[in-house]
């Protein structure tokens, strides 16, 4: 959702088009996997490479999908897939040293390969939509790299539905590119917390209401 907001703000995408796309995207992702057949879990306190390795092993053994899909920050990765392999992966990850595994209250295994049918349908919706080249780059979720080309933006929006979100790498790449202030806009401050763990020493702020806007502006004006 944040990537669509960013694309609207940079002028790549019209607001009305973004609302329509996001609505269809949500519908397609829900229809790709019936409620109750998919699952997601946050894995805490285990190296991301180990999580990927174990998920691949469980997937190969079970023949059902389970993958690492959200690389949030050091020590937190979300996995997603069909219910049974997710549960098996949780057991294996705990045995490998994960401190906790928290099942998430979601209706589908978002960003996993089980969302590929949704991605295909999303491509059809996006095909006639006008997306413009932009001068202010947006960091794409699936590559953690800056993108400005309209053609590339459209391709990545399709891929995003069924591929992992590389938040940690995105933040690290932005820091490497000279970014030293991060402002999260929207309900809550989950991403602000992730960013503080990734980019220690950088300024990470959030805006979710009038009070937090005032506080953030005060910090930025110091």
CATH C-level label of the domain at 36-106: Alpha Beta
Write out the CATH superfamily name of the domain at 36-106. Answer: Malonyl-CoA ACP transacylase, ACP-binding
CATH topology of the domain at 36-106: Alpha-Beta Plaits
* Overall average pLDDT: 96
Helix content: 40-55%
Protein name: [acyl-carrier-protein] S-malonyltransferase
Keywords: Acyltransferase, Transferase
Catalytic activity: holo-[ACP] + malonyl-CoA = malonyl-[ACP] + CoA
EC number: 2.3.1.39
Outline the structure in words:
The chain has 222 residues and is of the alpha+beta class. Among the domains are: 71 residues, Alpha-Beta Plaits, CATH 3.30.70; 43 residues, no CATH class. Helices cover 48% and strands 18% of the residues. Strands 2-3-1-4 form a four-stranded antiparallel β-sheet. The chain has a two-stranded antiparallel sheet with strand order 5-6. Strands 7-8 form a two-stranded parallel ribbon. Helix 3 crosses helix 4 and helix 5 runs antiparallel to helix 6.
């Amino acid at each position: 959702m944040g990537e669509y907001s960013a694309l609207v703000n940079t002028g790549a995408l019209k607001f009305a088009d973004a609302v329509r796309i996001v609505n269809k995207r949500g519908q397609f992702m829900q229809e790709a996997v019936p409620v109750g057949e998919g699952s997601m879990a946050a894995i805490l306190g285990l190296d991301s490479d180990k999580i990927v390795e174990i998920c691949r092993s469980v997937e190969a053994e079970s023949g059902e999908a389970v993958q690492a899909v959200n690389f949030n920050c050091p020590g937190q990765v979300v996995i997603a897939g069909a219910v049974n392999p997710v549960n098996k992966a949780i057991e294996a990850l705990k045995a490998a040293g994960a401190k906790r595994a928290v099942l998430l209250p979601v209706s589908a295994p978002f960003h996993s390969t089980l969302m590929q049918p949704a991605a295909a349908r999303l491509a059809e919706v996006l095909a006639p939509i006008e997306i413009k080249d932009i001068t202010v780059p947006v960091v794409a979720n699936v590559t953690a790299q800056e993108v400005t080309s309209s053609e590339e933006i459209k391709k990545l929006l399709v891929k995003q539905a069924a591929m992992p979100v590389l938040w940690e790498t995105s933040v690290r790449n932005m820091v490497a590119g000279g970014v030293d202030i991060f402002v999260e806009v929207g309900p809550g401050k989950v991403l602000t917390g992730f960013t503080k763990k990734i980019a220690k020493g950088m300024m990470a702020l959030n805006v979710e209401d009038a009070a937090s806007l005032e506080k953030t502006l005060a910090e930025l004006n110091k």
